[in-house]
Write the structure tokens for this entry.
Amino acid sequence: YLDGEWKNNADSMELKSVTGRIVLEYYAKSVNIVAGGSGKVSVAEDDRTQVARGADVGQDGTFTVDGQRLYNLASHRSYGDHRLVMDISGEGFQIYTFTFG
């Protein structure tokens, strides 16, 4: 689910407002995104500050998109149902895809 003003490009979704939100429900051990542009992203999972932080998420539950690449958001020991919420600050943030492990 997307919240905020987004532009549907041919290969990505681009945040056009200053802030936006992405909510993703998934079943996997890990979740990654391919993102580009710029922006600061706050990640929460299962209605709390991210517990199973991925390699790119800091202790404070945030990461900065500083170029186009793969970002690891969550890493769990086993498969499970989860709800990931990304609060984004930064017009021009682009998300290309999610990948799962």
Summary: The mean pLDDT is 94. DSSP finds no helices and nine strands in the chain. The two ends are 21 Å apart (CA to CA).
